[in-house]
Amino acid sequence: MTNKIPYIVGVTGGSASGKTSFLKEIGRLFRPEEVCILSQDNYYKTAAAHQKDENGHINYDLPECIDLDTFKADMLLLKAGQTVKRREYRFQHEEQMGDWLTFNPAPILIIEGLFIFYRDDISVHFDLKLFVEAQEELQLERRLKRDTLERNIPAEFVKYQWDNHVMPAYRKYLEPYRSEADIVINNNKHFNHSLKVIEDHFRWKLREMK
């Protein structure tokens, strides 16, 4: 446990905009005792609790699909200097129990997810807000590649989800909050410049917090 209040950073952006890749780089640049990353992806509810669309397909791109109350509670535990344990959520294999993940408090706490700006009671805790974006056509191309290769989802269904779930959710739950971001990270080609800016800022904060 620690009595120091961490510097809390919220990171959001559309599907396949590059949030995960950006945060992997942050994780590579900093030690676990310096930066903790808590992702909304491990807080999905079971399929039985999810809403279905008019064609009987589960819409995973709604706030109701994620246990945001527990997500917020764990964020507050980390903010208070306590360790959090959570089962890893396995996409397409949610019936399997994921490995236990341990999140330890750190001076910089990164909160990542689709709906973190939409939920005022979560976003109010952020000291810095980052919004990762890319051109819509490029995001779709990346999602098609990821979901067909990594998750074995047919391309036709990926496109169905994009048109009927992903983009409607983006327009409603993410895009309206883009203007609240302190920094918008463009990831059409790469995010190298933005990554360097954030790295330098974090290192300055870490020195300041010693």
Write up this protein:
Helix 4 packs across helix 5. The protein has 210 residues and is of the alpha/beta class. The relative contact order is 0.22. It contains 6 helices and 7 strands.
Name some characteristics of this structure:
two-stranded antiparallel sheet, five-stranded parallel β-sheet, alpha/beta, Rossmann fold, 210 residues, 6 helices
At the first level of CATH, what is the class? Alpha Beta
**Distance N terminus to C terminus?**
16 Å
Q: What fraction, in percent, of the residue positions are helical?
A: 25-40%
CATH superfamily descriptor: P-loop containing nucleotide triphosphate hydrolases
Number of domains: 1
Q: Main beta sheet, described?
A: 5 strands, parallel
Low-pLDDT runs of 5+ residues are none
Write the layout of secondary structure elements.
Layout lengths: L6 E7 L5 H11 L5 E5 L28 H12 L4 E4 L12 E4 L4 E5 L7 H4 L4 E6 L2 H15 L4 H20 L8 E4 L5 H18 L1
Parallel strand pairs: 1-5, 1-6, 2-5, 6-7
Antiparallel strand pairs: 3-4
Please provide a brief summary of the model.
This protein has 6 helices and 7 strands. With 210 residues, the protein is α/β, with parallel strands linked by helices.
